């Protein structure tokens, strides 16, 4: 195989376009694609934000128009589509840029030009360097390398071996991971298996699976998302549909698992005893290693005999391919946190806070890699564009905690607020939306706090502690230091917005942050509702948060019956425990009514209101935690969320209404005790 090529053109936009067309002389234009906002002659052109739609496809040449802005996410996505011997052409404006991200990108590009004859950096006044064209040998035959075959064998073992031994299949892009899934599925159908379900963030992400299965099963009937052979089927099912639906399968294949919310992956793990999770490690999303660390903890608990296989050998390009290494370096896809051995003795007292200046990150590549690598580990969706944000936005502050010079924790904060009265009123009225300013905008538009716009905020948008050091109090101490620094800078409120889960809510509550809003809609990335929590640093901040918590508490019971009807009971309980009581203590009339229900045979229908008032009051108090987990869940689902008997019985394991009522009487008796 030939090495892939890269050429960066720096000049005015028209010269870049003319030069690109000249460089493509001899290329098959039908196998080229351009990302940009203007058509490039006969070359197929798609907008920059559509890069994900061509993932899995192969091109002889990819042209990226960066003359206005070079989008790092799109660049990362497209590098993996260039075939061996192909070319990546990037067009940049001649004018010098103030972007620190772009300055670093150009520095790394010039380094690769110095070490490889396949990398070229050409200014407008310089001559073009001709590009060689790729050579295609298309026999139509599927060639399986040794790595892929071992991956296929590992998938087959999930079906033939013991139950509850899932497989995690990982690889960098271009290793034929999805192809291996498709070929394994075809082998299983040939062996007589009847139902194989495939899920992924979108069907486009899993199309390669079906393509390879169909090629090995030429007699099958294939339409989008479904492959049939006699009575056997390979079928695509969206993750949320698969979680909620009544499906059975010989095997479930989860492709690009890192891009699916962790809560959904856990539900799939619980639901199917034979399942494969496939994940890209150094993908354009930069999510794979965060997935690996966090989801493997779940696997260790739920299915300790799970297996792992990593594909290393590329199939689209050479093993020593420099374009892949260039993308890793330029986009920090291979950034790693500090090795555990260097920081294992860190404690709260031995760590020091440091505020990092953005320009120092540009000068210190090792520090940048360590800082960014820690964020990749901690967050599912740390993208290359986050690196651009980190380096280029002047409203972002970066804090780190160091142990003997090594970074063990990191936080990125952004300033918000200070909005003018007229603008605040328009946001409150639903007539305006701003880019950024998440905290004041949400408090105005959603929480209904009319005075929220004028206050100054610092929002912690990312925070991470090395996994090896978690649960040592370092995170809480780190937040305390950040809050103290914000107070010195006369900030009114420090806040966070995060994908709600029990552990994170407890963490921020222990840091003295109070819940003020739960987002009505699911977050696209996490699949969870966004939780907003704040801590005050001034008198006006205290007044704002006190009013916000009171309002949230007042709305909470109604929200549970409407927008949060299916919120997990443990999450409902966790949030409720942080809110002031929304009802007065149990009235004597209610107590008498409930006593007759709990200890005698008074019908549920005749004491629903009393039960509703009592549970609403109890769930905000410690006494609610004396109930068993099942009793807590029953009280939340049946009383507060008012879910149907059949739904509650199915989820809590009751045989029907009679058993549910018996359990409810027992729970009520405990609450009255």
In words, what does this structure look like?
This protein has 673 residues and is an alpha/beta fold. It folds into 4 domains: 5-123, Rossmann fold, CATH 3.40.50.11040; 147-311, 3-Layer(aba) Sandwich (Rossmann fold); 348-563, Gcn5-related N-acetyltransferase (GNAT) (Aminopeptidase, 3-Layer(aba) Sandwich), CATH 3.40.630.30; 588-672, Four Helix Bundle (Hemerythrin (Met), subunit A) (Up-down Bundle), CATH 1.20.120.890. The strands form 3 sheets. Strands 9-10-11-8-12-13-7-14 form an 8-stranded mixed beta sheet, sandwiched between helices. A 7-stranded mixed beta sheet has the order 15-16-17-18-19-21-20, sandwiched between helices. A hairpin with a 6-residue loop joins β20 and β21. The model is unreliable at 284-288 (pLDDT under 50).
According to CATH, the homologous superfamily of the largest domain is Gcn5-related N-acetyltransferase (GNAT)
Give the overall form.
Answer: globular
Distance between the termini: 77 Å
Q: Which structural class do the helices and strands define?
A: alpha/beta
The main sheet orders its strands as 9-10-11-8-12-13-7-14
Radius of gyration: 28 Å
Helical segment count: 25
Helix content: 40-55%
